[in-house]
Known about the structure:
Blueprint: H1 8-29, H2 36-49, E1 53-57, H3 60-70, E2 77-81, H4 88-95, E3 99-102, H5 114-126, E4 142-146, H6 158-168, E5 171-175, E6 183-184, E7 187-188, E8 195-199, E9 213-217, H7 220-229, H8 252-263, H9 265-283, E10 290-291, E11 298-299, E12 305-308, H10 312-321, H11 351-359, E13 360-363, H12 371-385
Parallel strand pairs: 2-3, 2-4, 4-5, 5-8
Antiparallel strand pairs: 1-9, 6-7, 6-11, 8-9, 10-12, 12-13
Helix pairs in contact: 1-8, 2-8, 3-4, 3-7, 5-6, 9-12, 10-12
Amino acid sequence: MRIPFIDLKQQFHRLEPEIRRRMDAVLAHGQFILGPEVDELERELAAFTGVRHAIGCSSGTDALLLALMAHGVGPGDAIFLPPFTFVATAEVVALLGATPVFVDVDPETFNIDPEALRLALRALDMGDPGKYPLPAGVGRLTPRGVIPVDIFGLSADYAAIQSLADKHGLFVLQDAAQSFGGLYHGKRCGAMGHVGATSFFPAKPLGCYGDGGAVFTDDDELAALMRSLLFHGKGGHKYDNDRIGINGRLDTLQAAILLPKLAIFTEELDARQRVAERYTELLAPVPGLTLQAIPQGCRSAWAQFSFLHERRDAIQQALHAAGIPTAVYYPKPLHMQKAFANLGYRPEDMPVSLDLSRRIMSLPMHPYLDDALIAEISAAVAGAAS
């Protein structure tokens, strides 16, 4: 029997009665848009994250978009972000007419490198791509914000990033699509920066059964603005439009599904940590294999369990033959994507991201992996790596 990469069936089997009860309640009351389950979920998410406001929305992508729109991002603005991530982080910047400025990542944590960010800010301030690679042919840009992406579940170095942002007058948007539930020095991911965003895509640590997302902030005005923006720029009522917005509401059915999942989320995070620790124990001794470094004071949500190896492709093939699924996040960094070719980056401009893309691979990771399966997968990796 093939091993699942992410086992949503076991979770559903555990929660099926409560999920069905919650969905039946929505079908009974018929409030499919902004029903009471959305309000309930937002209160629970805010309490879990430790922020004043949690606002459900239609996807993780729209969560990022709402946060940028609320900050008035547009043409001529520069938004700093890593190229070693999913396209959505840079896509929303480009959709608003702003310019993604790519900043390479740390070779140990795989998150945005604060020192590289410092160099990129200096280069843009001086207008000198010799100091750090900058987008080509875009004229003078105004630094506006930075979007650290918490890769594979691990938070970025927010103390260092916030210090640089404060110095340069930038807002910080935490992309916690992969890290929601993780910790950074006692704070939940989503609560860092001026605003946080997450995704409830089914494969995320906390996922629904479709698309969904949320934004988080302690700023009352920012929260009110994002609530308006996600409902077509709504003012006092649904036919009163104060601004141009989007249709970004979270479906009531998805909120109903998320509520039972959130109730066991802390327990599942503990289980993910156990799985990661067992993988680490078995794989750390494998020659040539490098694991993602978890800095002191941080706890990953373990959206993925990833490692680096020069023989990545051969290991993948061997595991596939053994019925063990793997994935590569990400095979092509954003600065090399055709969609951003107009920015004029060269592959070697982001050497760490380029290197990671050639050596990275991820193993099955979910809260319901037992020790026997972890041992089987780890033994297959060790055998293929030798």
